[in-house]
Amino acid sequence: MSTCSVSKQIQEELNKQLYDNIIRFLRQSHSEFQEKKIEWACRMKSSEIPTAALVLGVNVTDHDLTFKRLSEVLQDNVTPYVVSLQAKECPGIRHLLKKLMGQLTDCYVEDQSEEEEYVTVSKKRIRCSLDALTDWYECVTKKTGSETPSKKRTSPSHWQSPPIVVIFKDMESFTTKVLQDFIVISSQHIHELPLVLIFGIATSPMIIHRLLPHSVSSLLCIELFQCLSCKEHLGTVIDKLLLTTKFPFKLSEKVLQVLINIFLYHDFSVQNFIKGFQLSVVEHFYSQPLSVLCCQLPEAKKRVNSFSHEQCEHIRSLPSFRRYVESQVSEKQIALLTEDNFVKEVTWILLEDLHIYHENYFPVLKCLHIFTSSLPKYPLGKQIRELHCACLEKRVWETEEYESALQLVRMLCKADLVAMLQKCVKIFMSFPGKEFGNTVEKLEEFLARFQNLEVAEASKVQDESISSQKELQKKTDLYHLQKTLLQLKESRRSKKLTKFEMLRFEVVDFIDSLVRNYLAPAEMQTLHEVVYFSAASTLCEHLNAAPRTALHTALNNPYFYLKNQALKSDAGCISNKAPDICIAYKLHLECGRLINLVDWLEAFSTVVTAVKGTDSDSVASDEVDEIIHARFIRAVSELQLLGFIKPSKQKTDHVARLTWGGC
Amino acid sequence: MPTLEHPEYPEATLLHLESIMPCRESQMSTLLSVFGERQQYSFPSIFIYGHTSSGKTYVLQTLLKTLELPHVFVNCVECSTSRLLLEKILSQLQSLSSKTKSASHISCDTLNQFVCLFKQETMAEELQNETIYIVLDKAEQLREMEANVLPAFLRLQELADRNVTVILVTEIVWELFRPNTGCFEPFTLYFPDYSIGHLQKILSHDHPPEYSADFYAAYINILLGVFYTVCRDLKELRHLAALNFSKYCEPVVKGEANERDTRRLWKNIESHLKKAMQTVYLREVSSSQWERLQQDDGEPGQVKGLSAHTHVELPYYSKFLLIAAYLASYNPSRSDKRFFLKHHGKMKKTTFLKKHEKTSNHLLGPKPFPLDRLLAILYSIVDKRVAPTGNIFSQISSLVTLQLLTLVGHDDQLDGPRYKCTVSLDFIRAIARTVNFDIIKYLYDFL
């Protein structure tokens, strides 16, 4: 799937700089290692372990990909020996060393397969200690050192005596003892074993000081690297995936809002955002029969031509198409509703229109964003995604926020305005659409006029201000001063608009006209259902599941899931046909914190035997049927398994309730 | 007049020893007299303790090496199990006895086995009539191994019936080692901390070849003046001296001052050293970054330390979850009614609480709270209605993995988990500010 590859590509580009920085750091620290330490200063300094503290942000789910990519990059460019460790694999120092050895010897095998025999022999006797590791390293480097000149087969990009990079993926979760021990031990071998540590940090670098005492952290040479913030990352992803005509598939306002809300409110995970996007792609193609047309324009035309009668009916039943039909003259209406070929022709044209709409929409959106993103208080949002949502939702020019935004634009100073216009020109130039030739011309004309104004006005304004100031300086007594000030104020108020202000109004009007022309919400476009996925509620169900609510619904209203007519009952009463667990659940809702089991059983048996009515007399009334008893016990233990109750020691024959409220 | 005297060794060697280990003469002479002559039996076990970097390991190592005494040197930190330790000792012994390195690996699981193997290994001619020294550095680790390891090492001489001495080196006192019963009391030797004079002497000992000893000694004097109050660790001081020396030399190299112009040099370096104390000494800025800064002549303020990045960006609901957790941790649960109910009536702090609750909760630290309370507070502090979705619950557990919350007690999720909030007041205030939530108003301590 192309979106997937694109998103990966984006991520790589974003992280490239980070990787480059880390590699530079490694190179530097490594060169220090390789220098033979003859210099006095080098000899005196205690040898610290080079450590990169990598701050990745709290979105833990995204980290895996980053680390995977990082180790690949390192393996390609720096060293074959990259080990990544996770806290849950290393509860003790022994496990850590074992893992370390295991991964290292494995990557050794990978590098030179003919040596397998040697490795398998050595694996048996390798004791997991750093001594063994040092021996191993010596052995390996000696071998490659002697081989490379003759064969040059091992990848040439690796450095001489490559460092061993150990990545601690989740620094926060490691226990202090393990980390401390490892650092202390490895610092004693640093002369023979060029170790480099990378700490993956999710929260803040302060955690290093919290985990490591000074005696240990003084063994490290820590440098900080900051990952791109996940919000910026999301911004780029949205820009590349959604705000482009490259992909025909689009998200409607509600769906986009759901995805963004999950991102901002819950997890900050770009990975999850992309997954949600992929899910909506799948859902769209699965549920919408006309999604066959959701492809590049020439292909779509071909597909329209081969449409069957049924598919034409599908088109006719689209609400947006119906709206379109109603707006036509009556003969055409009849033709549209009866002739398949005519429908195909019209569909053709409409699809083209839709495409053109998108081609115009995005540049204008970006242009508008340039104006609104720098306004005080951001009436239309700071991020382009907010603006996009606002435009998709309804006619943006009818909203109050838009009004106030334009008001603010009308007060911009010249320098800002010129800069913005220049940016807009750039944006329009970068889009290949033909429509914007005029727009660019117009914008450039504005720019030229601003330029002229500058020249013309510079002299005039100066004159004016000087003269008024001179007047001010002449009068020295208070009364006259006040009077002139008032006069000045008056004149300013009534003064006609300057040329600059006139021009500014013109610019704003022009922008406004662009917005009105091109930023109509997508839902007003005919055939928008073909490319827009709008089932937000389905997506919400899948991505933001509410297990407790679902459980409550299932137990409270079994018909919702079982679809058995007998279970269809009004909310209040308890039917005896419902599954036992539902009956028990409903009864327990009426109880307090502690539930008396005997009472509960009593109530349960009453409900179960209620309708049997006549033969309830035959059974001795105070003794509960054994079968019912067994059913009750099973229902209660099922409830316990689901976490609604637990046995209590406070009172005999009582259980404690664990949940409160409706759900 | 040499302070070290020993009939066994030539005077030149002793003099050399003295010169490379200044300020440790008395300890050395004690050790030498305890060791006795080569073939004599020595004390079965010696216990050496002293503070970090007081030269314990260094003295022992150089002593054993220069006098060419047969010895085994093991750092116990590297041996997480007794088995690793024993095998390491044996393999080193092996390389001692037969100078040609034999590849055969010895496996040794128990102490009993160890004693037998030890006897075998020491059968060799050259080891028979000399004392073998086994040095166990960082010996405090021995206490975490099986209970019989430490007592057995203390009387290894007796058990193995060989001329062997075990030396334990550690930073803590013997009283913390002593097992309950039946243990041999070792000979204890204390290495006192270096005084400032000692430090001055030792640090000036190794001056760079380009500069005179006096010049370097003056530099060390300034360095100690700044750092002695916070750091007496010789290793660390040496590191700092090496890091900052180039800055000290700068005026001399540029020709602005000569080597004797101490006042000028002092002016140049003092503020620099003070900055170093706040940054590089605490490892806020790494040493390599510090050096780069010196070379570029930049201000140390340019590089932000690790602690400068305290800001943590969290998702919207995570912020509220954390705030709710903080409130639940630091407010008594009986006060929840007061904070989160609309018509709570008045509550006086003094009459309301029992005596022990009157101390500040912030002094007592966070208290554990059940999940239900956390969610209840969350629902009442968020303006919008929050659906109890799976994402909320997974956010709680991801806060736990980030160590902002900790799970208290067992990990049975069905049985009502309890949490504690571990963030500081400053941190939570910063978080609350970003969501416009006045947390101080909701904290019982600040009522």
TrEMBL record, chain A:
<keyword id="KW-0597">Phosphoprotein</keyword>
<dbReference type="InterPro" id="IPR045667">
    <property type="entry name" value="ORC3_N"/>
</dbReference>
<dbReference type="Pfam" id="PF18137">
    <property type="entry name" value="WHD_ORC"/>
</dbReference>
<dbReference type="InterPro" id="IPR040855">
    <property type="entry name" value="ORC_WH_C"/>
</dbReference>
<keyword id="KW-0539">Nucleus</keyword>
<dbReference type="Pfam" id="PF07034">
    <property type="entry name" value="ORC3_N"/>
</dbReference>
<protein>
    <recommendedName>
        <fullName>Origin recognition complex subunit 3</fullName>
    </recommendedName>
</protein>
<keyword id="KW-0235">DNA replication</keyword>
<feature type="domain" description="Origin recognition complex subunit 3 winged helix C-terminal">
    <location>
        <begin position="548"/>
        <end position="660"/>
    </location>
</feature>
<dbReference type="Pfam" id="PF19675">
    <property type="entry name" value="ORC3_ins"/>
</dbReference>
<dbReference type="GO" id="GO:0003688">
    <property type="term" value="F:DNA replication origin binding"/>
</dbReference>
<comment type="similarity">
    <text>Belongs to the ORC3 family.</text>
</comment>
<comment type="subunit">
    <text>Component of ORC, a complex composed of at least 6 subunits: ORC1, ORC2, ORC3, ORC4, ORC5 and ORC6. ORC is regulated in a cell-cycle dependent manner. It is sequentially assembled at the exit from anaphase of mitosis and disassembled as cells enter S phase.</text>
</comment>
<dbReference type="GO" id="GO:0005664">
    <property type="term" value="C:nuclear origin of replication recognition complex"/>
</dbReference>
<dbReference type="InterPro" id="IPR045663">
    <property type="entry name" value="ORC3_ins"/>
</dbReference>
<comment type="function">
    <text>Component of the origin recognition complex (ORC) that binds origins of replication. DNA-binding is ATP-dependent. The specific DNA sequences that define origins of replication have not been identified yet. ORC is required to assemble the pre-replication complex necessary to initiate DNA replication. Binds histone H3 and H4 trimethylation marks H3K9me3, H3K27me3 and H4K20me3.</text>
</comment>
<keyword id="KW-0238">DNA-binding</keyword>
<dbReference type="InterPro" id="IPR020795">
    <property type="entry name" value="ORC3"/>
</dbReference>
<feature type="domain" description="Origin recognition complex subunit 3 insertion">
    <location>
        <begin position="304"/>
        <end position="536"/>
    </location>
</feature>
<dbReference type="GO" id="GO:0005656">
    <property type="term" value="C:nuclear pre-replicative complex"/>
</dbReference>
<dbReference type="GO" id="GO:0031261">
    <property type="term" value="C:DNA replication preinitiation complex"/>
</dbReference>
<dbReference type="GO" id="GO:0006270">
    <property type="term" value="P:DNA replication initiation"/>
</dbReference>
Automatic annotation (TrEMBL), chain B:
<keyword id="KW-0067">ATP-binding</keyword>
<feature type="domain" description="Origin recognition complex subunit 5 C-terminal">
    <location>
        <begin position="314"/>
        <end position="443"/>
    </location>
</feature>
<dbReference type="GO" id="GO:0003688">
    <property type="term" value="F:DNA replication origin binding"/>
</dbReference>
<dbReference type="Pfam" id="PF14630">
    <property type="entry name" value="ORC5_C"/>
</dbReference>
<protein>
    <recommendedName>
        <fullName>Origin recognition complex subunit 5</fullName>
    </recommendedName>
</protein>
<dbReference type="Pfam" id="PF13191">
    <property type="entry name" value="AAA_16"/>
</dbReference>
<dbReference type="InterPro" id="IPR048866">
    <property type="entry name" value="ORC5_lid"/>
</dbReference>
<keyword id="KW-0547">Nucleotide-binding</keyword>
<dbReference type="InterPro" id="IPR041664">
    <property type="entry name" value="AAA_16"/>
</dbReference>
<keyword id="KW-0235">DNA replication</keyword>
<dbReference type="GO" id="GO:0005524">
    <property type="term" value="F:ATP binding"/>
</dbReference>
<dbReference type="Pfam" id="PF21639">
    <property type="entry name" value="ORC5_lid"/>
</dbReference>
<dbReference type="InterPro" id="IPR027417">
    <property type="entry name" value="P-loop_NTPase"/>
</dbReference>
<dbReference type="GO" id="GO:0006270">
    <property type="term" value="P:DNA replication initiation"/>
</dbReference>
<comment type="similarity">
    <text>Belongs to the ORC5 family.</text>
</comment>
<dbReference type="GO" id="GO:0005664">
    <property type="term" value="C:nuclear origin of replication recognition complex"/>
</dbReference>
<feature type="domain" description="Orc1-like AAA ATPase">
    <location>
        <begin position="22"/>
        <end position="167"/>
    </location>
</feature>
<feature type="domain" description="ORC5 lid">
    <location>
        <begin position="216"/>
        <end position="283"/>
    </location>
</feature>
<comment type="subunit">
    <text>Component of ORC, a complex composed of at least 6 subunits: ORC1, ORC2, ORC3, ORC4, ORC5 and ORC6. ORC is regulated in a cell-cycle dependent manner. It is sequentially assembled at the exit from anaphase of mitosis and disassembled as cells enter S phase.</text>
</comment>
<dbReference type="InterPro" id="IPR020796">
    <property type="entry name" value="ORC5"/>
</dbReference>
<dbReference type="InterPro" id="IPR047088">
    <property type="entry name" value="ORC5_C"/>
</dbReference>
<comment type="function">
    <text>Component of the origin recognition complex (ORC) that binds origins of replication. DNA-binding is ATP-dependent. The specific DNA sequences that define origins of replication have not been identified yet. ORC is required to assemble the pre-replication complex necessary to initiate DNA replication.</text>
</comment>
